Amino acid sequence: MESIAEMEGKTFQDALQQEGEQSSKNWYVIRTYAGVETWVKERIEERVQAERMEEWVGEMLIPTEKVIEIKNGKKRVVTKKLFPGYILANMQMNEALQAMVKSTPKVSGFLGHNAPTPLTTQEVSALFKQVDEGAKPSQKKSQFEVGNPVRIIDGPFLGFAAVVDEVNLAHERLKAMVSIFGRSTPVDLAFGQVEKTG
């Protein structure tokens, strides 16, 4: 499967390589309101051009990943923001640039205590590696364990309470014991067909 950490045709590995070529710049994390990251990124890029700050600003990226989700028993690949409310920016920080970014609507500041703190090369490498790994199963698969009470939310046993008897991580399915007419009956279900109740 192709790399999923693409932003406008570039992978995070490309951005990391470009960082090495622009050694005077560091990666900073801009905090925004969740859900408006793309809008904020576009506003900052517009302001950078309008105020002629291009030499101080390199790539601006919103880390995303493709995740395999199971809904109604069907697998689908969806793109999710890795860190909602955050934008990575490769910048040569100075007071004017910091003030411009902080005054952009829906920006709450930079990551760091009193001043913007750049990410270390190790942090950047680890982050980019995590994002470039590719599609992976949703974290739902790890939440089910033998003995967990669950409620069936899809299929012919909709609304029934059950107890997990077996978990098959490879096929993202589980066997649950459902009480039908006073007898425990095993039912084979996909992870997306149940939710944990306890």
What topology emerges from the helices and strands here?
Layout: H1 12-21, E1 26-32, H2 37-50, E2 57-61, E3 64-71, E4 74-81, E5 86-91, H3 95-102, E6 107-110, H4 121-132, E7 136-137, E8 149-152, E9 161-168, E10 173-180, E11 183-190, E12 194-196
Parallel strand pairs: 3-7
Antiparallel strand pairs: 1-5, 1-6, 2-5, 3-4, 8-9, 8-12, 9-10, 10-11
Commentary on this structure:
This protein is an alpha+beta fold. A hairpin with an 8-residue loop joins strand 8 (149-152) and strand 9 (161-168). Strands 11-10-9-8-12 form a five-stranded antiparallel β-sheet, with no helix packed on it. The protein has a four-stranded antiparallel β-sheet with strand order 2-5-1-6, with helices on both faces. It has four helices and twelve strands.
What can be said about this structure in brief?
The chain is α+β, with helices and mostly antiparallel strands and 198 residues long. It is built from 4 helices and 12 strands, in the order H-E-H-E-E-E-E-H-E-H-E-E-E-E-E-E.
Fraction of residues in H or I helices: 10-25%
Number of strands: 12
What series of H and E elements makes up the topology? Answer: HEHEEEEHEHEEEEEE
With helices defined by DSSP (H or I, 4 residues minimum), what is the helix count?
4
Shape descriptor: elongated
From the N-terminal CA to the C-terminal CA, the straight-line distance is 36 Å
| CATH homologous group name of the largest domain | NusG, N-terminal domain
* Uncertain regions spanning at least 5 consecutive residues: 1-9
In CATH, the architecture of the largest domain is 2-Layer Sandwich
CATH topology of the largest domain: Alpha-Beta Plaits
How many domains? The number is: 2
CATH class of the largest domain: Alpha Beta
